[in-house]
Structure formats: C-alpha cells, structure tokens
Design brief:
99 residues; mainly alpha; rod-shaped
Length: 99
C-alpha cells in the first residue's frame, strides 16, 4: 500500500548519510529564515566588537611607538654625551700622565 501512495507514506530522506524525516526538513525550512537572521545579527555584532577592539589596539600601539621613538631620541642624545665625556676624560688622563 505504501508503494501506491508515495505522498502519504513515510519515506525518509538521506542527507549526508543520515536518514531524516521530510517533516523535520519542512520544519527546518520554516525555522531557518529566523535562525539565519539571528546568525547574521550575531556575526554583525561580533564584527563591530572586533573592529572596536582593533581600533583601540591601534591607538595603544601608536601611543607606545611614539613613546619608544621619544625614548630612542633621548637614548641617542645620552649616548653622544657619554662618548664626548669619555673622550674628554681620556684626554684629561693623558694630559695628566704626560705632565
């Protein structure tokens, strides 16, 4: 009897080697648009959140790089003064040794 009335009988459908009732698939078709909208909303929210975090990270990195550049300038200045004072000290020691 199930062979004569195929539209009335229960015939499972195979999706990815899993037997699924056609009624379940019909339910998924009705639910899917709402689920899809939910997933899109969550992904959009996560994307905005990530963009804000990246922007904050960029501001922090820019601040750190600026501080590092200022520190490098100060370090170069101190290095030049150290070399000049070392040469001056060597000159005084040599002068007093020859005197």
């Amino acid at each position: 009897m199930t062979d004569r009335l195929p539209f009335v009988s229960y015939r499972p459908m195979r999706i990815a080697d899993i037997e699924v009732d056609r009624r379940v698939l019909g339910g998924f078709r009705r639910i899917f648009p709402f689920w899809g909208m939910y997933v899109i909303a969550v992904r959009r929210r996560n994307q905005h959140k990530t963009e804000r975090q990246l922007e904050a990270l960029g501001v922090e990195v820019r601040r750190i790089v600026t501080e590092a550049q200022d520190g490098a300038k100060t370090l170069r200045r101190l290095t030049v003064w150290l070399v000049v004072l070392t040469i001056l000290n060597v000159a005084f020691v040599a002068y007093s040794a020859f005197k």
